[in-house]
């Protein structure tokens, strides 16, 4: 039987479609073991009482050492392991931000052009979200 997690029990994971100079940042997870080696949109769990956009900025600072700002929500949300759901925001680096480094949770980063978007093995559960980003990218996302 399939059980849908009730809205109130869901925990939002925010993922960043961090764009710079026409490229999207992909991050390779180093942990936990079942996700390690696969690629994701950097981000993390929204804490109680936190706005998703604030969580995004916090997670990108903690994980990548960057100073980023959210730009807009990518419509949709995608189920992860219960009780998590993935929501995605486009984001950009603020002027003067350090370049991203894999400080936490990741062991490799890649800036992907649209033509390279599917060159990395994304987490299966991220594929529909990346597809949505890709569709909007083609329509002038920057
Ligand atoms: N950040 C992120 N997490 C994802 C994606 N796809 C996906 O299945 N996940 C999973 C991995 C984790 O189980 C969960 C988010 O955990 P996390 O480890 O990134 O978040 P966090 O920093 O807040 O977690 P924590 O270590 O503080 O517990 O969502 C994705 O695209 N981005």
UniProtKB/TrEMBL annotation:
Superkingdom in the source lineage: Bacteria
Pfam families: NUDIX
Keywords associated with the record: DNA damage, DNA repair, DNA replication, Hydrolase, Magnesium, Metal-binding, Mutator protein
Residues spanning the signal sequence: none
Cofactor(s) required for function per UniProt: Mg(2+)
Keyword Repeat (UniProt): no
Catalyses which reaction(s): 8-oxo-dGTP + H2O = 8-oxo-dGMP + diphosphate + H(+)
Residues in Nudix hydrolase domain copies: 9-139
Family affiliation: Belongs to the Nudix hydrolase family.
Name this polypeptide is given: 8-oxo-dGTP diphosphatase
Natural source organism: Streptomyces cyanogenus
Highest classification ranks of the organism: Bacteria, Bacillati, Actinomycetota, Actinomycetes, Kitasatosporales
């Amino acid at each position: 039987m399939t059980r849908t997690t009730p809205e109130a029990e869901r925990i939002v994971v925010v993922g960043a479609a961090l764009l710079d100079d026409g490229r999207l940042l992909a991050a390779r997870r180093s942990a936990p073991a079942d996700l390690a080696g696969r690629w994701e949109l950097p981000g993390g769990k929204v804490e109680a009482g936190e706005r998703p956009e604030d969580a995004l900025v916090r997670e990108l600072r903690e994980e990548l050492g960057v100073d980023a700002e959210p730009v807009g929500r990518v419509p949709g949300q995608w189920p992860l392991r219960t009780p998590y759901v993935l929501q995605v925001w486009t984001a950009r680096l603020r002027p003067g931000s350090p370049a991203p480094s894999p400080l936490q949770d990741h062991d490799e980063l890649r800036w992907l052009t649209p033509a390279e978007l599917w060159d990395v093995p994304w987490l299966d559960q991220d594929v529909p979200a990346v597809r949505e980003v890709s569709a909007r990218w083609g329509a002038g996302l920057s």
